[in-house]
User: What shape does this take?
Amino acid sequence: MGRLDETLDKFDREVDIGLPEKKHQNGRRADTRMKTYDAIVVGAGHNGLTNAAFLAKAGLDVVCVEKNDYIGGASVSRNLYKDWIYSNCSYVCSLLRPEIYRALELHKHGLQITPYGGSVQFMQNGDYYGSYHDQEVAYREMARFSRHDADAYKRYSADTMRQCRFIRDFLLSTAPDPTSFRPRDILELMHIGGKFWKMGEERMYETIRFWTMSVAEYLDEYFETDVIKAALSGSGIIGTALGIHSPGTAYVLLHHYMGDVDGNVGSWGFARGGMGSVAKAIAGAFQAAGGELRTESGVNQIIVRNGKVSGVALENGDEIQGKLVVSAMDVKRTFLNCMDEKDLPEKFHRRVKNFKIRGSSGKVNIALDGLPTFPALPEGSSLMHSDMHFIDSMERMERAYDDWKAGTWSSDPYIDMVIPTLNDPTMAPPGKHFMSCFVQYCPHKIEGRDWTSEEKEAFGKSVIDQIANYSPDFKDLILHAEIRTPQDIEAEIGITEGNIFHGELTMDQLLFNRPIPGYAQYRGPVDGLYMCGSSTHPGGGVMAAPGANAAREILADLRRPNTVPETFSDD
Ligand SMILES: Cc1cc2nc3c(=O)[nH]c(=O)nc-3n(C[C@H](O)[C@H](O)[C@H](O)COP(=O)(O)OP(=O)(O)OC[C@H]3O[C@@H](n4cnc5c(N)ncnc54)[C@H](O)[C@@H]3O)c2cc1C
Assistant: This one.
């Protein structure tokens, strides 16, 4: 941009005609001296921040507004008890796209991800099934239960990785619109088709089946041992209001395998200092690029004038003007809570209302006075550093879902439990620990009504009791526990029903269908309005891809140079 353009652009943004603040006709304060931002990003979760960072890097004048007095959304670290840091929503990291990590130089802003490995399934008969990173050890452990399964694992792993590698290529790109004749959509469709075609006939059939089948059916094709299937099926239902026998859950499994840590596809890690470190580092990149972050600035309404967005009205009555508004809130909160129905096409509004976003997971975060023991494990077992689970059969997995369907929490829950302080001592005082328990299933409402505090306590107790069945000293070590139902998550983070992915990850809500067919390319139905949260492609998880992809589209619309990396295509 030339100097004159720059001056005009600055004038455009910072126009000050010296008039005093005046009251708007609808009671909001419209400050006429107020500048007009190039973009207002609503929500300082990791996707909003990512979007804001890439826009700011392109030279746009960006403000990111957040309702809470802290940032991060569901990628947050909170100091809720003495010197303990809680990752009180998301707790492990893998999906964060390495291209984004590098482009935003997140290491310079303090982000460190340390890998951890394996998982353990505690069994009711006192035994356990361990899953290890080391392939030899993993084989021997599986063969302890079934040589057939140990032999089948290699095939399972290769087939599942093939599916991962197929989808990974599309994470950092906009889903093509199959109804469009635009060259970029046609080229992208040809790219997907070409990749699919190259798989060969048999694998093409397998892929289509994989995307639509249940995780239980998928695992049945490889394994015969109940505990091994139970161990592997967990990733098919985490965060999902579906059971292991529900169609579409095989894909959800993939959603937990397609990330990587240090280039190891499928590996998971801990963010040093808790998951808030991810959002903090992205916010650092945003601010370093000149972006402005405003907390305690909840948006009440996205303002539309003459068919175009013109800014946002805050809950405190202030207005902020912007040429663009980018919402990182989920699709229901954006369009049903923060916009007027009259500003939206009728069909679009109906589809948003029918978007599936159901709460199915809770969380229990615990400060521990020391490290609990699990007598089933050999002393010094590396499995203490792994994901721990307490359900050993497919029937128990499905029964846990039955409780959710009946409108209550699982009496025998599927818990994904980790002790991050074994890897990251910064999260608790020396010798003490933080334990994160992700709990499936937990409904947004109890039999259609709000939770009572007694029910919330009882939900927490069911989790603590289940762990205590396998760890006799566990209860005595508990110093503080934070119990979170989907309703609490909704109230705090603003995610509708507390759904961790901002909407179910089923085929009808993926790729060009996410969030709404015809609106999958991050543009909203009103001029100047964009979406960049996890309700958009490729969905939830601490991945930062929706935020980045949306920024690329916005910069293209503005004819600005692209600051967003393309995928490495390393697979
Ligand atoms: C309990 C739980 C456990 C999870 N575990 C993991 C995990 O271990 N690993 C993983 O990868 N993923 C996990 N996830 C999923 C992942 O954390 C989310 O999908 C992801 O963080 C969503 O990011 P986002 O930026 O799209 O949205 P959000 O994080 O939901 O951010 C939206 C932001 O918008 C703000 N906001 C809402 N309404 C308004 C408003 N009106 N005005 C202004 N601001 C507003 C919110 O406060 C929030 O900061 C978990 C999620 C939850 C809830």
